[in-house]
Amino acid sequence: MTDQPILRMSDVEVRYGSALALYDLSLSVTRGSVLAVVGPNGAGKSTIARAVSGLVPITSGTIEFDGRSIARRRPDQIRRAGLVHLPEGRGVFTGLTVSENLRMAAALLPRTERKEAMARGYDLFDALGKRRRQIAGTLSGGEQQMVSLARGLILNPSLIVADELSLGLAPLMVDAVFDGLARARAQGVTIVLIEQFVHRALAFADDCAVISRGRTVWSGPAGEAKDEVLRRYLGAAAA
Questions:
Q1: Using CA atoms, how far apart are residues 39 and 44, in angstroms rounded to an integer?
Q2: Per-residue pLDDT at 87
């Protein structure tokens, strides 16, 4: 891990029609690190994920990935550059088998790398190897999230933006998802973690950004974030 940011957002504004979703938002992610992005519902956390992956345009500001501007690039161009967005709600094709889901992701790689990529996906989660011919829509929510994570990781990304991967999952499945993220981290993948389990996210992350009303209201080491999270996110009742 170095001190060089792999992702930098500066003074970013995003609108949905007349509604202001992000305003003057700035944050940076150190290469090889994990940044936890936390904040109340509606604060703009998922919009951050959509903006950096090219799914929504920014009205103003800059977004740089690996030293280059990506603010006006298409989602497929951003993905090929090494930034993978794992969206809230499990990004899988429910009508396809597990194997077909992984094969569609691997198709983005050179033909000579696809077989090895598929094998990496099955190695990541043992359960997927046993269910490779099963229709993804018949898997449990946790297993579908494993498929989503495996689809992203077999692309050898430099950075993963993981948006609420644990949403609605049983505790054991949450453990499995975090295990998968830990493996990605061990391989040097940078992670932006948008997560409902705030304390678990802070324990996993190196740094933290607290978002409120579309702006970054605090940022710093995750180990120093507890008081800010209690005050700004969980509120006085939690404190």
A1: 8
A2: 87
Beta bridge partners of 28: 8
Torsion of CA 62, 89, 136, 144, to 10 degrees: 90
| CA distance linking residue 7 with residue 68, whole number of Å | 9
Pairing mode, if any, of strands 5-16 and 19-30? antiparallel
Q: What is the rounded CA–CA span in Å between residue 158 and residue 189?
A: 5
Beta-carbon count within 10 A of 138 CB: 11
3-state secondary structure of 53: coil
Beta bridge partners of 25: 12
Secondary structure (3-state) at 38: strand
Alpha carbon distances (Å) from 230 to 18, 100, 218: 31, 43, 12
- What is the Cα–Cα distance from 123 to 129, expressed in whole angstroms? 8
Beta carbons within 10 angstroms of residue 75's beta carbon: 14
**How far, in Å, CA of 98 to CA of 90, rounded?**
13
Bridge partners of 12? 25
Residue 70, helix vs strand vs coil: coil
pLDDT tens, residue by residue, 120-142: 899 888 889 899 999 999 998 88
3-class SS at 143?
helix
Sign of CA dihedral 12, 18, 20, 21: negative
